[in-house]
Specification:
Helix content: 10-25%
Number of helices: 7
Structural class: alpha+beta
Number of strands: 18
Oligomer: single chain
Radius of gyration: 32 Å
CATH class of the largest domain: Mainly Beta
CATH architecture of the largest domain: Sandwich
């Protein structure tokens, strides 16, 4: 049995039966090398992969689900011999001898004479063209520099599709959509019927071991097939997290304003005294995020142009802010200040809250934090 189909244990370099303490120690050791803020050895993609593995293996429930998925996939493979197999038709027999093609020596004499005349005429035209004086009335003014074309923002990534059924697999990105196949009994072959963008989710029914295909449910009564190499075990939530990490985009700068609503003469300073990146949303009494600000670990920023009134900050910590999803792609935790405060009484917002006598923040869902 393959205890590590997604390679989570391999990423942390621990055994599949490692205790939680060993998993935590391995993560901290590798994170100190791969974190994007570390010079030379920092690697954002490798750190996201490491954090994804740690998030699963450090959570007892998610680790148990991962092991169950491993057993389910192994059972599908071991029972494939009892399922119906599909085989493409054999290629037609090829003739043993190939007929000889025409040769230049087979051309009649008249054709050779015509070809010689064409060659002589072409040579004569070439000599005339090379010896003719340049024309004086066909000059063209060519500008010294071409106009500057402003850089274009890359197109948004295609949104994933969620197919019918309980999702247990999703499409992994490879630079092209995954082709969905259907078996045609008349042709005795698989034919393409559509495509799925990366991170689309589906319900896998069985594995066709001999063909390397996975049967998925398209509708309540229709099925299709996708190459097993294009799928990864995971539900809709895991697919969305992977989509956000893959399309994270360029990291925000400290103090970068990620969103605004309204304008005014108010201002406040936000300080991030934690060791993680933070995104803060200043919400008014209507729950509208008037300003959304990114702060690097230990960073601070002055946020001006705020409408007057009372505000209640929401903030989220995590790793790798995703511009595609407006959330942290790994390890996100969102919290909300206990109450509202007027800007005049809120000259500085400290994350996490540290004012004496201040009520502690409360946890909120990722969905509550994400909406503007």
């Amino acid at each position: 049995m393959n205890h590590d189909p997604q390679g989570y244990y391999a990423r942390l370099e621990v055994d599949w039966d490692a205790p939680p303490e060993a998993i935590h120690t391995a993560y901290r050791r590798k994170a100190r090398v791969l974190h994007p803020d570390i010079p030379v050895t920092g690697n954002a993609a490798a750190f996201v992969a490491l954090k994804e593995a740690y998030d699963v293996l450090s959570d007892p429930l998610r680790r148990a689900a991962y092991e169950r998925a491993s057993r389910s996939l192994d059972q599908l493979r071991t029972t494939v011999h009892a399922t119906e197999q599909y085989h493409p038709p054999s290629p037609p027999p090829q003739p043993s001898a190939q007929p000889r093609g025409p040769r230049l020596s087979d051309l009649p004499l008249g054709v050779w004479a015509i070809l010689a005349m064409v060659v002589v005429f072409a040579g004569f035209e070439a000599v005339l063209h090379l010896t003719a004086p340049p024309s004086q009335d066909q000059t063209v003014d060519v500008p010294a520099t071409a106009p500057t074309v402003p850089p274009q923002a890359p197109p948004p990534p295609p949104r994933p599709i969620r197919l019918f059924g309980i999702s247990n697999v999703y499409v992994v990105p490879t630079g092209s959509p995954a082709v969905v196949l259907r078996y045609d009994p008349g042709q005795r072959a698989f034919i393409p019927i559509g495509q799925l963008p990366p991170f689309s989710t589906a319900q896998a029914i069985r594995v066709l071991h001999g063909n390397g295909l996975v049967e998925i449910r398209l509708t309540a009564s229709a099925v299709g097939f996708i190459p097993a190499a294009r799928l990864s075990p995971g539900n809709a939530e895991a697919a969305y997290e992977a989509y956000c990490a893959y399309n994270a985009g360029t990291p925000p700068a400290n103090g970068e304003i990620l969103g605004r609503a309204g304008a005014g003469a108010g201002e406040t300073t936000i300080e991030n005294r934690s060791g993680q990146p933070v995104v803060v949303k200043l919400r008014d009494r209507n729950g509208v995020a008037v300003a959304t600000v990114f702060l690097a670990p230990g960073g601070d920023a002055l946020v001006d142009g705020l409408p007057g009134g009372a505000y209640r900050p929401d903030y989220a910590m995590g790793d790798l802010w995703s511009r595609a999803c407006n959330m942290f792609a790994a390890g996100m935790r969102a919290q909300r200040f206990a109450g509202y405060a007027d800007l005049s009484a809120l000259p500085t917002v400290v994350i996490p809250p540290e004012l004496p006598g201040q009520a502690p923040p409360v946890d909120i869902s990722d969905q509550d934090f994400e909406h503007d």
